[in-house]
């Protein structure tokens, strides 16, 4: 059997075609896996933000309940106006503390 240059060229391009096909199939599998991983990641991020949102709402409800309880407790001893004044001063001090800690963490 005699091998000619045309046989060599045909075999070479068959090899190139097979390699391209294998690369395409491999890359499609890779992209499909990456797409599924990306979907899982976005779903996990969504669940995390949802959890943070729910915890934030519960935290606000807890603060409101604390304020009301403190208000009704102080109202019996020192009156309505004075208890509101003490609660506002308390939250002013807490706000300054939180802003100060945020300033230290960011700068």
Characteristics:
mainly alpha, rod-shaped, about 110 residues
How would you explain this protein's 3D organization?
- The protein is mostly helical.
- The protein has one domain (5-106).
- Helices cover 94% and strands 0% of the residues.
- It is built from two helices and no strands.
- The mean pLDDT is 85.
* Rg from Cα: 34 Å
**How would you classify the helix and strand content by structural class?**
mainly alpha
Measured by DSSP, the beta-strand proportion falls in under 5%
Q: Biggest β-sheet, characterized?
A: none
* Share of residues in helices: over 70%
The strand count comes to 0
SSE layout and pairing:
Layout: H1 5-78, H2 80-106
Helix pairs in contact: 1-2
Short summary:
This protein is mainly alpha-helical.
